Amino acid sequence: MNIQKVTVIGAGQMGSGIAQVAAGAGLDVKLHDIEEEYVQKGLQRIGKNLARQVEKGRLTEEEKEGVLGRIQGTNRLQEAAREADIVVEAVVENLHVKTELFRQLDPLCPDHAILASNTSSLPITEIAAVTQRPERVIGMHFMNPVPVMKLVEVIRGLATGEEVYRTVDELARRMGKSPVEVNDYPGFVSNRILMPMINEAIYTVYEGVAEPEAVDQVMKLGMNHPMGPITLADFIGLDTCLYIMETLYEGFGDPKYRPCPLLRKYVKAGWLGRKTGRGFYNYE
Ligand code: CAA
Ligand code: NAD
């Protein structure tokens, strides 16, 4: 199946990155969010990223304008969905929000459209089950920051069709990414391994073993991680980290996945990390 029209739902840090990379690969992109203000913010983020590439001599001004010209922002779901060959959903990591969205999208999209979710941890099979096209629903999990990270985890739901899998695998390659096939279990592979490490790092802060800076230094200098786990948690978004831990905890029923109370406290305070200007570190 040939993909030319990509609709991205959610213009936050992931959605805007996915839209940027898709448009960079020559695809026509619609970028949707619930409020016009959020759509504009996403478009601005893309503009800034591309301007940095121009400054670095990696992109010409014309190429930048070409990429931006291929992205159309909208806050109307119907308009976003109408002509899509594929929808990549990148809204908040909440099963109820995602299933509601897929329920709405299903009748709005052309019959041939693939509905993909960028979920970090939630069940693709359950999301697919609310639609009339479960065989055309799949997980397409990009990593943050999308323009930089090579991996796309491609998640097969129980009903995902073979042609749909192949199309998404090909699309990821066209976007310059390296897809890896995984099955549908909580957190898939990436976050089943990454998030317990982050949660454990937060526990070491919670239990007074070390300050966040010290935890980060240990993992950066000792294990050669590009970012320490506390910095990475702020970078991902503490809300997203908490939702992923809750999905692991619920999905496996194993106490080893219990979210750290300090993580809960930060999320309740609205200290969500870089995106709100404050998390374990201050970004203001
Ligand atoms: N958006 C776009 N590009 C970005 C960027 C962003 N937010 N941040 C950095 N970059 C680009 C820079 O422009 C630079 O590009 P060039 O090489 O073309 O110049 C390049 O990345 C390197 O950036 P810097 O030199 O400024 O900084 P750095 O060397 O410290 O790298 C980093 C930044 C790539 C983010 C690096 O710190 C890193 O790899 N961190 C870990 C990221 C990670 O683990 N991501 C996975 C998160 S988990 C996830 O995504 C799954 C989930 O479901 C939660
Ligand atoms: P974010 O908070 O930056 O952005 C989410 C966006 O979705 C917001 O702009 C919000 O207004 C919008 N939104 C919420 N409900 C919506 C709806 N019903 N319709 C349209 N838009 C809606 O979050 P993010 O970090 O971009 O994460 C988005 C998704 O990507 C989550 O499922 C997350 O788990 C996943 N993910 C995140 C990361 C990461 O490192 N942050 C990495 C990989 C995957």
UniProtKB/TrEMBL annotation:
It is an enzyme of class 1 (oxidoreductase). InterPro entries: 3-OHacyl-CoA_DH, 3-OHacyl-CoA_DH_CS, 3-OHacyl-CoA_DH_NAD-bd, 3HC_DH_C, 6-PGluconate_DH-like_C_sf, 6PGD_dom2, NAD(P)-bd_dom_sf. Residues 187-283 form the 3-hydroxyacyl-CoA dehydrogenase C-terminal domain. NAD(+) binds at G10, A11, G12, Q13, M14, G15, D33, E93, K98, S120, N144, K275. Its EC number is 1.1.1.157. One of its GO terms (biological process) is butyrate metabolic process. The record marks H141 as: Important for catalytic activity. Pfam families: 3HCDH, 3HCDH_N. Keywords: NAD, Oxidoreductase. Residues 5-184 form the 3-hydroxyacyl-CoA dehydrogenase NAD binding domain. SUPFAM superfamilies: 6-phosphogluconate dehydrogenase C-terminal domain-like, NAD(P)-binding Rossmann-fold domains. GO terms for molecular function: 3-hydroxybutyryl-CoA dehydrogenase activity; NAD+ binding. Pathway: Lipid metabolism; butanoate metabolism. Belongs to the 3-hydroxyacyl-CoA dehydrogenase family. PANTHER family: 3-HYDROXYACYL-COA DEHYDROGENASE FAMILY PROTEIN, 3-HYDROXYBUTYRYL-COA DEHYDROGENASE. This is 3-hydroxybutyryl-CoA dehydrogenase. The lineage of its organism: Bacteria, Bacillati, Bacillota, Bacilli, Bacillales.
